[in-house]
Amino acid sequence: MEIKIAFIQILPGKDLSENFSLGKKACIEAKEKGADVALFPEMWSDGYYLPPDQEETSKLAISRDSDFVNGFRDLAKELQMAIGITFLESHDQKPLNSVIFFDRNGNNILHYSKLHTCAFDAEIVLSEGDDFRVADLDFGRGTVKFGSMICFDREFPESARILMLKGAELILAPNACPMEINRLSALRTRAYENMVAVATCNYPEGQPDCNGRSTLFDGVPWLRDQPGVRDMCVFEAPSEPGVYVATLDLDQLRAHRNDDIMGDKFRHPEKYAILSDVNVRGVIPGKFVHW
Hints:
The chain is an alpha/beta fold. It has one domain: Carbon-nitrogen hydrolase (Nitrilase/N-carbamoyl-D-aminoacid amidohydrolase). 24% of the residues lie in helices and 23% in strands. The chain has helices at residues 16-32, 54-60, 67-79, 157-165, 181-194, 250-259, and strands spanning 2-9, 37-39, 82-89, 96-102, 108-113, 134-138, 143-148, 170-174, 197-201, 215-217, 233-236, 242-249. Strand 7 (143-148), helix 4 (157-165) and strand 8 (170-174) form a beta-alpha-beta unit.
């Protein structure tokens, strides 16, 4: 069984209305290309624009029940295709960097807000999310359990680990940064150590500080009946804008998860107490010790 993932690797427009129109057009193209789920880059509602002024940022934020978000809910139902739409979400205090996934029937099945915000930079004007969540995505031919992490979340092994422990087979990750060898290696590692597939959608070249290279790591570093290792990166987009569709072999991933030793099989959580001790901080020197 396979699931087809569309990466909406396109440039944003000048305002919310244009971003909705561009996003709708891209989703229609994704459906025409056979996608089961379409994933946007990070904070699509405003093209990842964060003014340093808190008040100005808050003016750009929109509700989870806004016309923009609900428009993609209706589109998901119309196209019979799941959509992961990203947006700057209004919040009681500071806005959130959020994604909502609508299934092919237009149901809100997962709402996640970025937990590891880049508070050392532009995202100091944002609030943090509160937890990692998973949900079942019914794509017609079957169901996959998935979760989400957003951009900087990738740099913390705990993000993908928690999603794996909650049952995720697939992680859908919106992104907005240069995807170079080190960040790509982090994604590869998250997939390898947790036996999960990781699909990341980035903005293309032309968006400040972005370069495309959306990827799908399928989480299968070797096959039981074949010698040697294989490249888990089964798809990497070029730098140019486009709607790219990649295929994930769920049967192959599930066979690997049943047969291999990674993930949760040989962990020793009773020895990891330091990881959850809020009084312990890193000893790496530098300006930003705790974010």
